[in-house]
């Protein structure tokens, strides 16, 4: 009998989910043992609430530093990244998600940076405007994951053949 895939995924994900709260719990127990006094309740709640965002930020910074050092070690240059307003490029992803559910895939709803108004333009025009600003090869940091992309067919073809 084979286990359901959801249960297998949960078992694989459980250590990652429990690591941060377990670290906070152990740290609070060590503080209690060192000081002899219990840690105030407000500090415990704050520590548990801020632990996951702090771990995400630490992982993001570690990944960026690791990628830069690896590129420097190999003599490479990292492509420039697209500018975002919200952490994790949630502004770009929310626009794409809204467009996917309410619009059609050829259109993109984006914030006009000059006027603060909503401007409707095609996805190809949007990518072209981003490429005019930062070049044909760019890094898309979406949800704290690096996704290098090339908008030019020739750049993508050269990458595929090398």
Distance between the termini: 45 Å
Number of strands: 4
Strand order of the largest sheet: 1-2
Large-scale geometry: extended
- Give a short account of the largest sheet: 2 strands, antiparallel
Describe this structure in words.
The protein has five helices and four strands, in the order H-H-H-E-E-H-E-E-H. With 162 residues, the protein is α+β, with helices and mostly antiparallel strands. It has a two-stranded antiparallel sheet. The chain starts with a helix and ends with a helix. The model is unreliable at 108-122 and 153-158 (pLDDT under 50).
Question: Could you give a short description of this structure?
Answer:
The chain is of the alpha+beta class and 162 residues long. It is 61% helix and 14% strand.
Key features of this structure:
14% strand; two-stranded antiparallel sheet; 2 domains; alpha+beta; 61% helix
Topology of helices and strands:
Elements: H1 5-35, H2 41-74, H3 90-102, E1 107-111, E2 118-122, H4 123-134, E3 137-142, E4 145-150, H5 153-161
Antiparallel strand pairs: 1-2, 3-4
Helix pairs in contact: 1-2
